[in-house]
Amino acid sequence: MGGLAVLITNSKSLAKEVKSQLEATKGCIIITKNLEQAAEIANKIAPEHLEILIKNPQKILKLVKNAGAVFLGPYSPTAVGDYVAGPSHVLPTYGTARFFSGLSTCDFIKSTHIISYTKKALEKIKEPLEKIAGIEGLTKHLDS
User: Fold this and answer.
1) What is the pLDDT of residue 1?
2) Would you write out the chain's pLDDT as a tens digit for each of its 144 residues?
3) Nearest to 95 by CA among 48, 57, 49
4) Is 48 a catalytic residue?
5) Half-sphere exposure of 120 toward its Cβ, with a 13 Å CA cutoff?
6) Annotation marks residue 36 as catalytic
7) Catalytic pick from 49, 113, 136, 141?
8) Residues 18 and 7 sit within 8 Å (Cβ to Cβ)
9) Which residue intervals of the chain are DSSP H helices?
């Protein structure tokens, strides 16, 4: 099963040109007021692959927060990321790029948080600590 192709553009003429090609494939077109709105929509979709095909893709890249991998310009197709450049098929799918990154070696390494306070440091945070524990209703945490 192939993915859903989504064109997000502020160009009505491009949307019209691409629409004829969507008849045979799964996809949709979203026309935006400007590139900033296009980036906002892309962030909500959080695609596995996001291709930015504008004259200066760096301009809009800074607005992209949610995508598995971002491909800049006409010479960086998805296939490069899947088969040559590195990310391959370890990217978050189905919009999960909103809260997950692609797999990395860190995903296979166990870590442990180490907390060490002095008496003085603990006294400094006593009030907010007691307040949060009280709000949560976790009295045993508070007692600790």
Assistant:
1) 44
2) 457 889 999 999 999 999 887 766 678 999 999 999 999 999 999 999 999 999 999 999 999 999 999 999 999 998 888 888 876 677 888 888 888 888 888 888 888 788 898 999 999 999 999 899 889 888 888 788
3) 48
4) yes
5) 0
6) no
7) 49
8) yes
9) 12-22, 35-45, 57-61, 78-83, 119-124, 126-136, 139-143
| Catalytic one of 17, 36, 48, 123 | 48
The CA distances from residue 138 to 99, 128, 142, 143, 144, in Å, are 27, 14, 7, 9, 10
Residue 101 is classified by DSSP as P
The token pair at 80 is 């490069």
Measured between alpha carbons, how far is residue 73 from residues 24, 76, 101 in Å? 25, 6, 22
pLDDT at position 23: 67
For β-strands 5-9 and 27-31, DSSP reports them as parallel
What's the pLDDT score for residue 87?
A: 66
119: tokens are 């008496």
Q: What is the pTM of this model?
A: 0.71
Residue with tokens 């400007």: 34
